[in-house]
Structure formats: C-alpha cells, structure tokens
Design goal:
The protein has 127 residues and is an all-beta fold. The protein is built from no helices and eleven strands.
C-alpha cells in the first residue's frame, strides 16, 4: 500500500505562487508514476500534470502549461507541483496520485489509471 499526503495549499492572490508537496510512503517511491489532479466546486475532475517514475518525462494540461511545474525528489519520496501566475480559475482541491508501473518512461493522464490518492489540499485564488 502507498500513502500520499499533500500539503502546501492556501489562499493566494491572482498572480501569486504556491508550491504543493506530496509525500509518499509505503513502498519504493521511484517505481511510481505520479500525477496531480484537481476538482473545482461543481466541476469535473481535471488532469493537471504527471511525471514518470524515472523523472525524465512530464506532461501538463493545456490550461496549466507554462505556469505549473511538476517535479519529484526520489530521495525524499516527494513529488512537487510548483504553481506560478495563479488565476482564479485555478481554485480547486488539488489531489496527488500514484500509479504502480513497470515502465520507467510511462505517464498517465486519466484519473482511473491511478492506484493511490492523497486527501487533497485546497488552493484558493482571490481576484
């Protein structure tokens, strides 16, 4: 089993930045592909970003590309989401997810592909 704990959310003004963290425990972090998803009030789940367990490849939703950066530190068993130039439409609960995979170069963009989820952290962007 894998446990994921997100942190770093908060209330930020438009244009501000946040750094979300997701700490993983329970198995070898380096064999997990990691992703971030979000859900705004009344909205559907939305893919945000993903990173392969090798750390060599990343993929972003068009809505966040150029503003968000996903990274991982396998030594710390932690994945990060650096969020810059925040917009009100970024307001959502952000969830960290992990996927068991044998493929070091694989990444996943659909929520149903993931095996483990964190509890979520709230990001609120004021106008």
């Amino acid at each position: 089993q894998v446990q994921l704990v997100e942190s770093g959310g908060g209330l930020v003004q438009t244009g501000g930045s946040l750094r979300l963290s997701c700490a993983a425990s329970g198995r070898t972090f380096s064999t997990l592909a990691m992703g971030w998803f979000r859900q705004a009030p009344g909205k559907e789940w939305e893919f945000v970003a993903t990173i392969t367990w090798s750390g060599g490849s990343t993929y972003y939703a068009d809505s966040v590309k150029g503003r968000f950066t996903i990274s991982r530190d396998n030594a710390k068993n932690t994945v990060y989401l650096q969020i810059n130039s925040l917009k009100p439409e970024d307001t959502a609960v952000y969830y960290c997810a992990a996927k068991n995979t044998y493929y070091s170069g694989s990444y996943y963009r659909e929520s149903y592909e993931y095996d483990y989820w964190g509890q979520g952290t709230q990001v609120t962007v004021s106008s």
